[in-house]
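Cont'd.
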Amino acid sequence: MTRVLTRQEAEDLAYREALLLDRFDWPAWLELYLEDAVFWVPAWRDESTPTADPDRELSLIFYQGRRSLEDRVWRIQSRQSVASQPLPRTVHTVTNVLVEQAENDWGTVSAAFIVHRFDARRERDHAFFGRYEYRLQSRDGAWRIAMKKILLLNDIIPTVLDVYSV
Amino acid sequence: MQRIFESGWVFLGLASQAPGPHDYFTTSIYRTPIIVMRGADGVLRAFVDACPHKGARLAQTRQGNARTLTCAYHNWSFDSSGRNRNVKWKQQGCYAAAFDADSHDLAPLPAFGDYRGFLFGSLTAGAPPLAEHLNGAAALLDLVADQSQDGVELIPGSVKFTFEGNWKLQLENCSDAYHFTSTHPSYIRLLEMRRERPDETTARSVWENSQAWSDAAQGVQGGSYSFDGGHVLNWGRIGVSDALPLYERAVELGERVGEAARDWMFNMRNLTIFPNLQIAENASSQLRIIRPLSASRTEMQTWCIAPKDEGAGARRQRIRSYEDFFNPSGLATPDDTVSYENCQAGFASRVQPWLQGYARGMTASRPGGNAIGDRIGLEPARNVLADSMLCDETLYHSYYREWARRMAGEGGA
């Protein structure tokens, strides 16, 4: 039986991802991604154009395959990265969720995000904001992430940006 | 800021950022906005990016192409050679004769120089000639510029980040071989894990065939060169390896620039041209401009620099390795910048517990060059040859000798 993505299902997934990141529930977060998922945070060519071709232009992060996200999670938990301990506290706020395309067993979703980050070590906070584009795939009765593109609009990075910051 | 950034040579950008007539790019020297433009005559010039009328910044974008720059405030306009073309309603303006005696052109930088496509400027006149400022370190810029017959370019997409620390922390870290294994164990371990379980999706590491960071490595694995003017290189032996994107042109390079220069291009090289340019060629290749915002806050503008006409596979590998290692969103740089902030916190102490970081290599530092640098005619002020664990710290002395000289009011202006 094929499925057609609804807005409520898209919201459920986006909100769940936000919560899992905020709770640092890494195994459940990784589980949202398909094995060959693309995770992409473009950089900017100029004032108004993000980079579009990851093989010829620079990205902030570009991963083809969940393995690289697993690497990130390993590093975050490794106690071998001074930037990753103690982790900042975050809240991912996801809004403006729209299903843009819905076909049998896959759909694309756009959303807006603000991630508030509080770095308790340095007693400072920051808000990253931008837009998400998801491509979701139905797999074994659940919607999973085949692609997530994170268009970070305020791209001057205060010291660190990690997968939990956007 | 006044004595080091607002007087004397600072790096502005690459000539390839404004390749054609009327192309421009903008940058800043500390607080001062700068525009570098190529005129209709093909000549690059650098100006303060501010209208002589009311001081409004003219160009609104990091790069562009404009025959005429028109100030958005009162519409004075300028051609791409910086000459004033129009003062709005001049005839009706009842100006005094003295006004006509003033130049209304854009203010050129008092000094502007191009060394093989690397552009430098100074906000004060009286800096020594650029060649004198670069002295022997120019040969290290040649190792970058010569990687392609057509020169180098900045890959589209620049990344800016800030840290809450003094700019000299960045200066030192680029030259700091001692921190690599202790600050970046998670990165090093991830490279090992990828090597143990390789797949198509992860970037290949340039260090996979190198002993430069191994405790077991014997003999000379690298070292440092320092030059008058505060320029510094630390380097590690890698050798002509197919793990480097440059490998696709190894034969061509050997023929064109000679084997000695080619072999040097394949070595890990972290170069600082004092005070604000760093070119790090290790995991990938990064060009950085250091810009102090205050004594305890620094902005870094960073790009992936690469030889022009690179093959698609080599370019992809260079970009992926760059993102992994160099980005503030990657697997290594955040551990550096957080450490800078920890240093800045410790610097507040007046008890001086932090001045023991300049002593490694004291008995290994030698005046002049050595046989390895002689192969490409390097003429440094001092050098250290090192095994993988010496990790010279005397190269920082060069930074601080120049810093002290400039702070004493010598040399910059």
